[in-house]
Structure formats: C-alpha cells, structure tokens
Amino acid sequence: MKKIFDEVRSLDKRAIEKFHLTEDILMENASLGLKNYITKKFKKNNSILIVCGSGNNGADGISLARLLQKKFEVSLYLVNESKTEIGKLQLKRAKSINVNFVNKIFQADVVVDCLFGTGLNKELDEDSLSLINSLNNLNSFKIACDIPSGINSLGQITQTAFKADITITMGALKTALLTDIAKDFVGKIKVANLGLSEDIFQIETNKYLLQKSDLKLPLRDIQNSHKGTFGHVNIVSGEKIGASIIASQAAFSFGAGLVTIVSQNEKNIPFHIMQSKSISDNCTAIALGMGLGEFEALKLEEILKLNIPKVLDADIFYNPLIVKYLDENIVLTPHPKEFISLLKLTNIANISIEELQDNRFLYVEKFCKIYPKVTLLLKGANVIISQNKNMYINTFGSQKLSKGGSGDILTGLISSLLAQGYKTLEATICGSLAHALASKNYKKNNYSLTPKDLIKEIKKL
Known about the structure:
This protein has about 450 residues and is an alpha/beta fold. Helix content is about 35%, strand content about 15%. It has a twelve-stranded mixed sheet with strand order 8-1-10-19-18-17-16-15-14-11-12-13, with helices on both faces. A seven-stranded parallel sheet has the order 4-3-2-5-6-7-9. Strand 18 and strand 19 form a beta hairpin. Helix 8 crosses helix 13 and helix 8 runs parallel beside helix 15.
C-alpha cells in the first residue's frame, strides 16, 4: 500500500521547519523528478515545450527548462510573469543560460503542463480554457507537473483539464488524482522525491493506494482436508437467477469448498452448485441482493438476522430493512446509484449521482463514520473501500468491467473469501484486487469481456 494525502503543503512545511530543507531545495528536487523521467524516456534533441503559469507550479517548469537545456530542444512558454519570489529567481536562472522563450505553443515531441498544479481554486478563465484545449489537441506526449491543470484540489473538473499521458506528482500521492473523473486525465502516476525518503517526508494518513502485492490469494496449504474445510457460501437468489449463478460460479472458482444457491423454487443451475430453500446449517458466508427483485420481507429479515458473515449488493440497497443491520460486520458493495439510495435511507444525505461522483471520498467518509463496523466498497472507475476511518483505493479496474455480471462476480469473490475465514476488510480488498487484476489480464478487445472470461482469468491469478 502507498500513502495518500488530501494535501501536501503541510508536508512541505514540515520538511522545511523540521528537516531544514528550503523551498528552493524542494523545487529543485521536484523539477529533477521531471527531468529524470524525460531524459530516461526520450532521445536527446527531442523538442520539449514547457507551458508555465505564474505560480510555483510554473516555477517548477522554469527550473525544468534549465535542467534540460542543451540536452533537448527546450522551449518555455510563459502565460504570465512569475508572481512568487522563487518563481522570479527561477526565471532569472533560466535567462542566465539563454533558455529559449516562445510566445505561442507549437507541436513538440513532449509537452509539459506547469500551469496551475494543486493551486487551482477557481473556474478557468477563457484564455486558460482555450490554452488547455489547444494543448490537448497537440499530438505530443503529455506530462502533467503535480496534477493536470483544470483539476482542483478535490479532484473535480468543472470545465476541462489537461489530458496527460503521465502525471509526475510531488512528494506524495494526492487524493485529487484518484477521483473517478480524474482517471481519464491523469494517465500513469509517478511520485517525485523532494529530497527526503518517503518514510521521512510522509506522515501518518488514513488513505492508502492498493498495490498488486496487497492481493493475498486463498492458499490451500493443508493436505488433510475436505470440501467443508474451505467454507460454504450461500447465495440468496431472487427473481433473476442469472445474477446468482454468476456469483456462485465466481465463489466456487475462488476457493470456496461448497456453494449453494438459496431459492424458493427449483432452478436450472450448474451441476456443481447446490440449491436449497433455506440457509445451510454449515453456511460460513452469505451473499444477498443480486437479482433480488421482489423478495418476501419476512424471509429476507430472517436471513439478515443470522450471525454469519454477509456481502450485501444490488437491490438490497433500496430496501429500508437494510438500515437495521448496519451495526454489524458486513460488507456492502453498491454502485453510485445504489449508494445514493443507501445514503437517503440512512438520512445521511439526499443527493444526485452527480453530487456523489464529485465528492465520492466525502460521502464514503460520512457513511463510515456513522457505521464504523461496515466495510463499504463503492464501485467506480477507481474503487473505494472503507472501514471506520481508513480508506483504500483500487485503481486497477478498467472499462472492460463495464458489463452486466461484473458486480455479481465481485460479490461472489468476496463471499468466497469470507467463507474461507478472511476478515471483512481483508476479503473486500483481496476480492476487489482479484476482480480488477483479472480484468486487466484479459487480452482480447476491451468491449468483449464476459463473466465467463473474467472467471477464467481469476483462475489464472
């Protein structure tokens, strides 16, 4: 896991006050991070256009131009004169070695965005909007310094933003880079060192970026075992049996020894999946909500009352009954529309999907503060997983998963791990990572992924 911070100015201040670095040293290391990436990736004499604003993000760009001078064909485009003292100093340094200044943008091999960074706190004016759109239209490799211009400190985009191939962010990962809307603009994300190791520069946080190494797959490390050793998942089926079958296949493929679909009517299901009219006596995890539709309230409440680990999904988030069971160690896996229904049922907020998507971290935090025992997974371009005060972000998912049945597989994976003895948070993190990484490994056209394909890739992890 890597640490994430809502803001890093306090970290910069701490580095200056506690470790005796200066603003100049921090800036030189920031521009050095950009320079090292460029010199490693691009050939000598490639053309580099650096577009700078008047703040410290622009000063980073001016410093970068000096570092790249003579190694590349460097051009510096200043939107305005530097307003900060450090910016004026960087400008003086650049001029002293005859860095090339240009008065209009042009097609270069590489374009570096140093317009606003995290300092954007207002809507773009017409000139800035026009400039960013023009930069996006260039057929160049695009690098954003710290954060693509047009994205504010909350990760929101009110008009447009610089569309980067890579964002080199300074000192630490920022929450604003990891919103759903930012995902199409940040490209890859790389953290530049500012002169102190991460362990020294960064402090404690409650937000973490998940890594591939955080996936702990089920391991059958005992020989003397039987099918009951590895848990028994019960998947409650409602009106739509397909969702239950998909979830059951995923649960079975991810290590559960037994999987039963619970249904009031006998269904045509895969031969290796059992079915029953009631929860099994040896059940070790329950999945509930997928394809639920109209389900008898009395029987639903009987299931919710059981002291068995549960994953709740889909239709259950529209049922007021759920509110009575949010003080338990359960896993919730809503998509945005389902989450706003849950927020309304719990009287936390009555908002639109747009409002939620602009403030995903805020509303996840509000919900988990009131219901600290719940493990919440909010689906999206970047998945947010939260329990109590801690938040974990999974960025490995892609548009391949935007297909019917993907969510049912996720529920099956998490319930399978719960059945095998994983704690709720661990099961949710590992199920989510397996889900996303398996989709990433799918090599055919990104529109063609089916539940069967995804389960096949999960088996290969």
